Amino acid sequence: MRPIYLDNNATTRTDPSVVAAMLPFFSEQFGNASSAHEVGRKVAESIRAARSCVQTLIGAASDHEIVFTSGGTESDNTAILSALAVQEHRGEIVTTAVEHPAVLSLADELGRRGNKCHLIPVDRAGRLDIDAYRRALSPRTAVASVMWANNETGTIFPIEVLAKMARSVGALFHTDAVQAVGRVPINVKSTEVDMLSLSGHKLHGPKGIGALYVRKDTKFRRLIFGGPQERRRRSGTENVPGIIGLGRAAELAAVDLGRERMEIAAMRDRLEHGIRDLGNCVVLGDQENRLPNTSNIAFEHMEGEAITHHLNRAGVAVSLGSACSAGSMEPSHVLRAMNVPSARLRGAIRFSLSRETTSEEVDHVVVALRKIIMKLREASSGLAGARKKSTLDAMSPLDESNYSSFS
Length: 407
Fold this sequence. Notes:
- It is a single chain.
- A seven-stranded mixed beta sheet has the order 2-8-7-6-5-3-4, with helices on both faces.
- The protein has helices at 16-22, 24-27, 38-58, 72-86, 101-112, 130-136, 159-168, 229-232, 240-254, 257-276, 304-313, 333-337, 342-345, 359-393, and strands at 4-5, 66-69, 92-96, 116-120, 141-145, 172-176, 195-199, 210-214, 281-284, 294-299, 316-317, 348-352.
- Helix 1 (16-22) packs antiparallel against helix 9, helix 10 runs parallel beside helix 14 (359-393) and helix 11 (304-313) packs across helix 14.
- The longest helix is centred in the last third of the chain and has 35 residues, at 359-393.
- The chain is of the alpha/beta class.
- The chain is 42% helix and 13% strand.
């Protein structure tokens, strides 16, 4: 049986049709899109077609609003640094305590450089404190950057409302939509979002390619200088195979998004129903307003690392949270921001499904997890009993210091 992959928020499998679309651009259509000859012009035409596919997926008004980048991190950094550069009289940033490290690490660095950064808190369901967000916005705010959906809990933020609030004080608004694009409907034309980040490998495209949506007439300062590529907004010879792959992945994601969304959500609910029967566990995040593919479940008084280890041995791939923080012994910054109780904090597991996940795989995971949880609980109970017996054995009946004295 092939491994069951439920870590799609970390990365997705590149769709075979995406790979097929990319292959000719490694050897047959190898021209430089900036070249004036026919070989280069054909490649440029293919890039334009891919750009149009991304435009359609996010509902942009023009394909000129799509800037290809190396991925979500570059897009996030470019958006925030650009906003600060074009609004020199404004030096403050408003973001949230649960953002991806691509935003939080930059905010931390900018704070050391003298920029004031406001980290807006969330409640126990991971929902943004709207009043705190409103209070943080001011004429000094250069940019507000809020993720469309959280990568660990799937909680979706009210981006349309937040963008409007930011624009009301003259600030630019950016959203890291890496987890949302291709999973929920997005139409940037109907919002006041100025910039939006996305990444190919989160929607069955290749790694190393992403895009930044920049609304027409939004003042913009490029991050990478050099040639005239991307309408002089991102220099450097284009990653043509990656761009073609992202375009094809966007095209596939746009097909019947609503139906796929419902089917994936149904499988996620099926998974949660089976796991809840194990007892002493809880689903974290906003269960009414979240991504259809994401479920973060915390097991009380258990170590998530042990659970993921045993699941991996059973052929099931899941994660403790963001892949970008894997290897850290510290509990998730997202769950800490949500004030998840200590009894659950280290026992949280993220399950993230995709359109390739089957109901049979979900049922197999529930059965495997049931065995693992029972085994770990028995081991924990046995260890506690052994410790208690060892303590009692060490107490000599002749040693009166081991007993309380009553008068």
